[in-house]
Structure formats: C-alpha cells, structure tokens
C-alpha cells in the first residue's frame, strides 16, 4: 500500500467543509461544499513539494461524517497523499461558514460541531507518531501539551521530529507573551503572520515596514528560540516572508507580484507551512529553500477558490495547470538575485 511509506510531514490541522455567504450588498450567491480547513491546505502545500514519489509521506486525518460528499473524497484522494480517512456515521462532518460583510470584515462560525485532531489520534497510528515533522495550528497551551506527549511516546531511539507551529489569532495577545516565550524553547519553526506576531506585543492592524522586521523579531522572539537550528518565519502576505535564524536574516518575496492574480487568499498560510516544511527537510534544513517552496505553493493555492486541482501528464504533476518546475522557473526569472541552486528536487 502506498500510504505505508514513512511520514515526512503530518498536519494536525482540521478538515472542514466551508460555505461562503455574502451580505445582500454583494449581490452574490452562496458558495457551498468548499474543501477547507488548515489540514487540507497544509497537506496540499506539502504534497506539491513532495512530488508523486514521496506524496504518500504527507499525512493527516480527515474525519468524515454521514454527510461527507463523495466528490470531496475523490478530490482529496486524487492527491495520492498519505491522508487517513475515518468515518463516523453518527455525526455530521465539520462545516464552517465564512460570512462576508460590505465593510470588508469576514465572520466565521461553525454550522456543525467541530471535530479537531487530538494528540491521542496521532498516537493511534504509528506512521503518524513517527513522522519527521508535525504541523500544529493551536493555542500556546495546547501546542506545549502536544509536543510533550509526542516526544514522550516516540521513545529514546527515535529521531527528534521538527515542529512547525502556527499560532491561532485569538491567542496572539500581549497577555500571552510570557507563555509564548516559554513555549518557543520547544518549537523549531515559529510561524505567525506579521499581524499575529505584532499582536503578541501590542494590538495593531498595521504591518511593520520590512526594514524594521529584524529588530522586532530579535527583540521579542529570537532569544527564546533555543532549539538547535530553530528560528522565526514571519508570513507577510503579498510581501512574502521574513526568515530569522541565528545565521540568517532574509526577506523572501512572494510568488505573485501581481495581486490581480490572487482570487482567494484562504489557505495561503497553511499551504505555505506545508510547502516550507517539506522543502526544508528535502534540502537538509535549508531555510531559504523551505521559504521559496512555501511561497511557490501558497502562490498556487490563492489562484482559485478552494484547493488546487492536480493532473498527471508524462509523469509530471500539474497543480492549477502548472508544474512546480514551471513555477520555480517563473520565480527565478522574477528574482534572479536569489540563490536557488539547491531546489533541484523540484
């Protein structure tokens, strides 16, 4: 079975079926049965970089309720990843609603009870427990508990996995900064978006200028990221991302420099994390390579509503009608000053 391949990447994000609803001023009909959730996009991003040969090493858990649409399952299975599908006919699939208002505000609520992935679920599958890396989207407290439990159950002979952590927005407040500092000693890649990072210090909706990023990250986060090779990876939307490690300070530009090509930014951050982590591991922990991979896949994700479409032609995968090699070629052409020699695995 292909999904018996050892796991390189495991996301603990949730699978959700989304619906987009709009205020009357939009004059727009609702969009239903959209494949969503942090799991979906993180796995899509990781899978794009892993390629068909290593695709089944990208994993996570999809919980199917009695209403799970067969066409969604077909789409997810077309990725040929290591996703695990669990069925429970006694419940409904987790469903969420994005409600868009005329003032640019988006509200989100669950329409059915959510079923998040717990660490006990990971312990139930040896493949997942022994993954090379884990993608966590959760509170500070829960992140700490998950890391401790996974490490305690892997045994002394197991290699230490990499943990990439996305904080949840509601947890990013100044009152949680002290708890954050304690957690960072357990994390390998700390990856908030820029507003989330700033909100740990002072609540704001204005992004810092690029020139001030290094000082900000150094002042507030770096001294607490004490694991070997750990660092901060600040996601900056259309500006790309900022890498800060003890050896590196670098802004890596986004894939799309033309924002008119961005259709829906949903899932861009989650897919970035998946793409980064797999690129990072395949390049022997090269942060720049990981960040470029993250930017390539997030650029693909935001080109359409919902997850990307994949097709295989002559043993080459095309995601949203472009291969990863084509995307890398375009990226190199736009940014020739960036060293991309170690991206030959694409």
Automatic annotation (TrEMBL):
InterPro entries in the cross-refs: PfkB_dom, Ribokinase-like
Domain of life: Eukaryota
Stated name of the protein: Carbohydrate kinase PfkB domain-containing protein
Carbohydrate kinase PfkB domain segment(s): 170-307
Species annotation: [Candida] railenensis
One Pfam assignment: PfkB
Gene3D superfamilies: 3.40.1190.20
